[in-house]
Amino acid sequence: MNLYSSILEKAAEEINQFRQNVSTQAVDDAWLEGLLSRLQRASSVSGTESVERELDIISRIIVDSGPLTENFAPSLYAALDGVQKGRKRSQRKK
After folding, report:
1. Whole-model pTM above 0.85?
2. What's the rounded Cα separation, in Å, for the pair 57 and 13?
C-alpha cells in the first residue's frame, strides 16, 4: 500500500466500467488489460519514488494510445495531478 493506493484502485474500477460501456473496436481490450495490470502494480508498490515511476509509465501509455478524455478514468488523472503537485512542492523546497 502507498499514498495513492485507494485512488488507483478507484481508477481501476473506472476503467473496468469504461471497458463495459465502450465497444471493443474503439479501445483494444488487451491494452486495457495491460493498463489495469500496471494500475494494480502501482497501487501495491511501496515508496514514493516507486509509485511515481509506475504512474509515469501509466501516463506515457495513455498519451501514446491517442486522445482519451478525462472521463476515461478521472481518479487516474487525479493521481497523476497529485504526483505533479508533489514534485512541484519538493522543487520549491530546494
Report:
1. no
2. 19
Cβ proximity of 65 and 47 under 8 Å: no
- Condensed to tens digits (0 to 9), the pLDDT of residues 17-54 reads 888 877 656 677 888 899 899 999 999 999 888 988 99
SS3 annotation, the chain: CCCCHHHHHHHHHHHHHHHHHCCCCCCCHHHHHHHHHHHHHHHHCCCHHHHHHHHHHHHHHHHHHCCCCCCCCHHHHHHHHHHHHHHHHHHHHC
